[in-house]
Amino acid sequence: MGRDEIDKLIQALKHEYKDESSGHDWHHLERVRKNALLIAERENITATYIIELAALLHDVPDDKLNATEEEGKRKLDGYVSMLSLKEEEKEELYDIIFSISYKGGNEKPLTSIKSMIVRDADRLDAIGAIGIARTFAYGGKKGQVLYDPDIEERSVMTLQEYRTGKSSGIHHFHEKLLKLKNLMCTETGKVLAEDRHDFMLHFLKQFNKEWNGRE
């Protein structure tokens, strides 16, 4: 598989996701790709093309972006058909893509360093300044309120509850984002998550102060 195939895939993904307003747009895919390649480099992983492809394609079958699971799988199959991958490479790529989602804390244990790298790369983009912006973009897309102190914070959820239960943008920090630092798989991911995690804590402290009229 040559670099030209990856470049064609990138152009197709840019066209498909450039106007996606939920925070899962082309720029998210590109940031995850860059994060993954940076982590791979620091973890001394030299064979990175499957990592790069998984980072680029990880959101394609996601149920947040597709009406049905079957629709997402068909869409992913279409993109993968653009690539001249061996059968075992396809299996590895699909295994990574379908194993990295948070799923309300009901995530799969990972067994390969490549999966760990892509999961960490995706989660880095869910925290920090970008993560804050994406949280409220996604909440607005779903029709969630910014914050409602009367909504009960959820700690243990099924996937269905995570996807459809009542929540808010601020609740999402406590239900997921603040947990991600301690769920990083690679040493590089853990280091990179520290600053982003601290930034979110600072944001929430300021938000709480302004919400309660304490200047």
Automatic annotation (TrEMBL):
Domain HD/PDEase: 21-136
Family matches, as SUPFAM superfamilies: HD-domain/PDEase-like
InterPro entries: HD/PDEase_dom, HD_domain
Lineage of source species: Bacteria, Bacillati, Bacillota, Bacilli, Bacillales
Top-level taxon of the source organism: Bacteria
Protein's UniProt name: HD/PDEase domain-containing protein
Organism: [Bacillus] enclensis
